[in-house]
């Protein structure tokens, strides 16, 4: 195990009743959760195994681990206030692929794990997950902050990531517009994440009230329609912890605040992208042209990414029309694009080549 994992302990299976009534992954995958030892406690991890996978490759130690060399594995890493339950729609579009998705430290059912937080700490946790499951190298699929964590994982733990698929994240963010040069960190955080931060400060009487919050969220208008309504409902229901009438979102405000400091230039991300030993892993970034509130001001402008393509010759970027920062992994066009790039990355690993370029590829 990597540093931080507890010697002599193994990933521990758990049961998780918080699953949507209609599971979009039921025909393609089986689903289980594990608690993996990391520094300070255990990290909750969702594992979707393809239904056609040969059960004989599973470990016989009760951990649901093992080499599983015949089954390609994708490590899916969620955003700054999300959880592993953000991924079912994408998982369903990856038949034959094993998807391992953690609740990052300070989120979901890993919310009690203490700091320090930051991209390096999260990357070390993910390396411990791969060790516990007996997985050598993966395609890392990261959404939002999960893309930043994935970049740092690939750099900090060489050989563990063969390809990077970054979904509206992973490249240093430009500072939020309209802020004074001397803006406090809290002001920057609220300008960047808006209602995502505000909801962490609220309590909710029951699950329906919390669903109402998300139904009213401008980025999720229409996201509750079939066939994706159960995906969103499962994601929202899983996010709540505590007891009624004081249910609260699972993400730790302290963790969110600390992690947001590393989404700009500097720190482990800068070391990975522009340091003395820069990252040497092929990467593609899918950009959502609309923002966190479905506004036309996206997280990344085309000009910002064009400048980074000049700095990182191995970076490909692609716009996914008609989606925002959230629905890029929870709507048909977003899921199609994310799953398509992930499958291209897996094919490139298998063939040893660069993989076919998307028709929508943006060139510098």
Account of the protein in words:
This protein is of the alpha/beta class. The chain is 30% helix and 17% strand. The chain contains eleven helices and twelve strands. Helix 2 (119-132) crosses helix 3. The longest helix has 20 residues, at 332-351.
Instruction: Give the overall silhouette.
Output: globular
Mean pLDDT: 86
Enumerate the strands of the largest sheet in spatial order, edge to edge or round the barrel: 1-2-3-5-4-6-7-10-11-12
How far do the termini sit from each other? 41 Å
Q: Tell me roughly what share of residues is in helical segments.
A: 25-40%
Give a count of the beta strands, DSSP E runs of length 2 or more: 12
Low-confidence spans: pLDDT under 50, at least 5 residues? Answer: 1-8, 17-21, 54-69, 356-364
Q: Structural class given helices, strands, pairing?
A: alpha/beta
Q: What oligomerization state is this entry in? A: single chain
Number of helices: 11
The major β-sheet equals: 10 strands, mixed
Which H/E pattern describes the elements? Answer: EEEEHEHEHEHHHHEEHHEHEHE
Strand content: 15-25%
Rg result: 19 Å
């Amino acid at each position: 195990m990597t540093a931080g994992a507890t010697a002599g302990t193994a990933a521990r299976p758990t049961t998780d009743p918080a699953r949507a009534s209609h599971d979009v992954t039921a025909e393609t995958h089986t689903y289980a959760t594990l608690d993996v030892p990391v520094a300070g406690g255990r990290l909750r991890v969702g594992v979707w195994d393809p239904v056609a996978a040969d059960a004989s490759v599973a470990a016989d130690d009760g951990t649901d681990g093992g080499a599983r060399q015949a089954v390609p594995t994708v490590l899916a890493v969620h955003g700054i206030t999300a959880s592993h339950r953000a991924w079912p729609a994408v998982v369903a579009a990856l038949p034959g692929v094993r998807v391992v998705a953690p609740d990052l430290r300070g989120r979901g059912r890993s919310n009690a794990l203490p700091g320090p937080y930051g991209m390096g700490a999260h990357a070390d946790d993910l390396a411990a997950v791969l060790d516990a499951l007996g997985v050598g190298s993966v395609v890392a699929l990261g959404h939002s902050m999960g893309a930043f964590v994935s970049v740092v994982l690939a750099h900090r733990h060489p050989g563990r990531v063969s390809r990077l698929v970054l979904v509206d994240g992973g490249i240093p963010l430009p500072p939020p517009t309209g802020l004074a040069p001397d803006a406090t960190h809290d002001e920057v955080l609220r300008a960047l994440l808006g209602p995502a931060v505000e909801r962490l400060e609220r309590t909710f009487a029951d699950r329906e009230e919390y669903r109402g919050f998300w139904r009213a969220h401008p980025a999720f208008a229409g996201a509750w329609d079939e066939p994706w309504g159960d995906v969103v409902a499962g994601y929202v229901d899983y996010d709540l912890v505590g007891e009624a009438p004081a249910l609260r979102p699972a993400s730790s405000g302290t963790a969110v605040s600390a992690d947001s400091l590393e989404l700009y230039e500097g720190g482990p991300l800068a070391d990975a992208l522009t340091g003395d030993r820069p990252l040497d892993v092929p990467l593609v970034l899918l950009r959502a042209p609309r923002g966190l509130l479905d506004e036309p001001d996206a997280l990344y402008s085309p000009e910002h990414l064009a400048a980074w393509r000049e700095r990182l010759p191995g970076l490909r970027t692609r716009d996914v029309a008609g989606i925002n920062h959230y629905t890029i992994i929870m709507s048909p066009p977003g899921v199609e694009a994310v799953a398509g790039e992930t499958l291209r990355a897996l094919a490139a690993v298998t063939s040893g080549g660069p993989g076919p370029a998307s028709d929508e590829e943006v060139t510098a």
